[in-house]
């Protein structure tokens, strides 16, 4: 039992790390696009190749204005890639003293380099492309020499870009981790006290992980972490099988609305609870509770709701049957005894739905308090309440894990699940 629970907790942690990795990767990519990191890196590389104290940026600007580079429909400042052959022709044209055709510029490149004023650029070009000055050179060999130099410089720039990307990943991971207050230490502590929750959550992790991973790989928009045809499917709620009357359907809808939006794992800060704890107009119409917190309204409504066998069957399909804990019997028993597994009926089904859910509670206050506690949102570690060493350690673990990216954790998760 303990081993199975431990595996379930590990699976849940892998899913948390995968989701955080996907989120961090997308945010990092959005930041990179916002600051034009790739185009800046390319411009920096070419500028370092063609700039010196003598010519400044003149030759560099000529290269970027060449028709092979500044093609129609492309913003020069947004370029993230330049073909090596296009660069060879553009550079040869930019260096030569007189305008000529592309082929003439390539053939004249050795003489154009020798005609440059003395300086670092001339010295750099002669040392970087010795094959250009061979006696038996031809245009193809000259192009190959320029392309070889260009690719060597781009390889160095690519390595520098990877380092910068890694730095951005860790920076974004640190910000997102603290902002969302995600700590594996808190999550493990929470799931260890609730083994049934860990087991139930682990069952849906493979499908959720697949959706999170595919979303992060195919879009830079906000992550869609919904579970598809899971607890919110209206078709499941309104399934015609069985005998559902208006009261049963209303009870199902109440269960779903109460469970929707409640934290499953201890993540986030208490100040994020304003929207989650407020009962919106939709929940007001369903539960008839105004001026109450979401947890209190749900606890009172569900403690007095009519939970029949048909309702329990639908709850199993909705994946939220875990909230059905047997309640203390009410003072007034129903006319027809309900099965043992069925919660007692507080109001007749024939009465209006609002009256069924908001009538004066006939359930013991302790039962209502129990239901209310089931819907209280949970949060990540609180530095003012928890030992700060564990808070910092949990954040560091999440930051490092999230910076690895979604593919890393998705592969590990698949390997782990294949061995179960």
Task: Describe it.
The protein has 420 residues and is an all-alpha fold. It has two domains: 1-220 and 384-420, no CATH class; 270-374, no CATH class. Helix content is 62%, strand content 0%. It has 20 helices and no strands. It has helices at 2-34, 37-50, 58-65, 84-95, 102-107, 109-114, 120-128, 139-180, 184-192, 195-218, 234-237, 246-259, 273-277, 281-287, 294-303, 309-318, 353-358, 365-374, 388-403, 406-419. Helix 1 (2-34) packs antiparallel against helix 20 and helix 15 crosses helix 18. The longest helix has 42 residues, at 139-180. The two termini are 14 Å apart. The model is unreliable at 219-242 and 321-362 (pLDDT under 50).
Keywords:
single chain; 62% helix; 420 residues
């Amino acid at each position: 039992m303990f081993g199975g629970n431990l595996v379930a907790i590990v699976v849940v942690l892998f899913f948390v790390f995968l989701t955080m990795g996907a989120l961090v990767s997308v945010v990092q990519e959005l930041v990179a696009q916002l600051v034009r990191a790739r185009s800046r890196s390319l411009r920096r590389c070419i500028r370092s190749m063609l700039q010196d104290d003598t010519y400044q940026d003149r030759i560099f600007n000529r290269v970027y204005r060449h028709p092979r580079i500044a093609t129609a429909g492309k913003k020069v400042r947004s370029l993230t890639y330049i073909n090596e052959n296009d660069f060879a022709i553009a550079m040869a044209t930019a260096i030569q003293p007189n305008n000529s055709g592309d082929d003439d510029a390539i053939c004249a490149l050795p003489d154009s380099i020798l005609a440059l004023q003395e300086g670092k650029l001339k010295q750099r070009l002669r040392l970087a492309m010795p094959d250009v000055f061979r006696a038996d050179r031809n245009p193809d060999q000259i192009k190959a020499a320029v392309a070889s130099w260009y690719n060597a410089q781009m390889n160095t720039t690519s390595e520098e870009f990877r380092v910068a990307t890694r730095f951005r990943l860790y920076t974004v991971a640190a910000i997102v981790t603290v902002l969302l207050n995600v700590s594996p230490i808190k999550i493990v502590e929470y799931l260890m006290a609730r083994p049934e929750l860990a087991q139930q959550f682990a069952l849906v992790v493979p499908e959720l992980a697949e959706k999170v991973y595919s979303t992060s790989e195919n879009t830079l928009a906000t992550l869609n972490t919904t579970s598809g045809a899971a607890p919110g499917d209206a078709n499941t709620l309104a399934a015609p099988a069985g005998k559902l009357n208006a009261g049963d359907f209303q009870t199902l809808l109440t269960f779903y609305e109460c469970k929707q939006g409640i934290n499953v794992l201890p993540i986030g800060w208490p100040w994020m609870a304003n929207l989650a704890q407020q009962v919106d107009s939709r929940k007001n119409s369903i539960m008839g509770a105004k001026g109450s917190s979401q947890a209190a309204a749900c606890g009172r409504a569900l403690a007095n709701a009519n939970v029949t066998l048909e309702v329990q069957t639908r709850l199993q399909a909705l994946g939220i049957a875990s909230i059905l804990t047997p309640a203390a019997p009410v003072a007034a028993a129903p006319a027809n005894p309900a099965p043992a597994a069925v919660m007692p009926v507080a109001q007749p089904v024939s009465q209006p739905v609002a009256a069924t859910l908001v009538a004066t509670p006939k359930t013991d206050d302790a039962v209502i308090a129990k239901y209310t506690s089931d819907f209280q949102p949970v949060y990540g570690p609180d530095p003012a309440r928890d030992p700060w060493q564990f808070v910092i350690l949990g954040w560091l673990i999440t930051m490092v894990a999230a910076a690895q990216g979604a593919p890393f954790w998705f592969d590990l998760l698949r390997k782990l699940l294949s061995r179960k």
